[in-house]
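Team,

Forwarding the record for the chain on the shared tracking sheet. I've put the sequence and predicted structure together so nobody has to dig through attachments.
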Amino acid sequence: MPRGVTMDEQIKQALAAVAGQFADKRVHVCQVEVTAVTDGRITLAGAVLDEVTLTAVLSHLAATCPEYALDATAVTILRPPDRAKLAVCTTITGLYNSPGFLSEPGSYLLNGMRLEPLRADGRWLFVRQEDGYLGWVYEPYLGDDPSAVPTHLVCEPVALLRQGPDEKAALVNRVLAGTAVAITDEQNDWQHITWAGLPGGWLPAPHLRPLAGLPQTAAAQRAQLVADAPRFTGVPYLWAGISGYGIDCSGYVQLLYRLAGLTLPRDADMMFAAGQPVEPPYRPGDLLFFGSEGGHRHISHVGLSLGGWQMIHSSRSRNGVFVDEVTAVPHLRDTFAGARSFLKD
């Protein structure tokens, strides 16, 4: 034990050190505390996301305090194996940072997205998305994981769902780009869809993209990204947004890649960390990243290169999705932090 450090302080320092490995609350939970140190035993309580997190905590404590036995029976593991998943059963809903509609959203969830329920607080559930993102969702908007296997993605920013295969038929609902649906019938240039928890209806066939036909090569993926990107021009900027109702910079990029059959992390800094660095000249589909003002390179913005420095992005300053030439916009030029690619050429 370091000179002048009590055992209680040493244990707290050890817990703080291992908790730092799981500090990103968007994807981790590591809330462990010591409730007692008696008779050669350290008693722990709290919650962790999974067994991997708990193992890391116990291993670090065991190495730091080898003379103590560890009791973690009061630590809750939020992700037990084989827990049944739920699905979003409304058109779109928020994923909030705490339970309650007045909380700030961290993201949004499209119909049919599958969620792992981790814990409950009244009518709110703390959930994990398939990409690992965590947050709170209103439980009445969820239902059992649908049995119908999705066959298509909606590719129109906001598609109008109708009762019959006719543009004059009554409106049933609106379906947002990126929503996975199952096709059950076809008539002329219309397709009937089913989706999670809501009445089905008819969409124009061009508004749907077969999952089996998503691009497989980098060249085809780049072409798809560039073809889809302008369809969202003018969609307003919305913090945490992911849809044609409103979208933020990383939500826009993530959605474009989803429509091309690729899964990206949710936030810009996550994308920057996960992507492969690339250098100019930038190719269509490469991602351009930007840091905060004043030289601090915390990643705070991302856009899609259309080739070179021409970029389409959801811009807070322009309040929506528009094209900019990076080198001609001072606040973009001065905060550029680098580029990344997720395409395997």
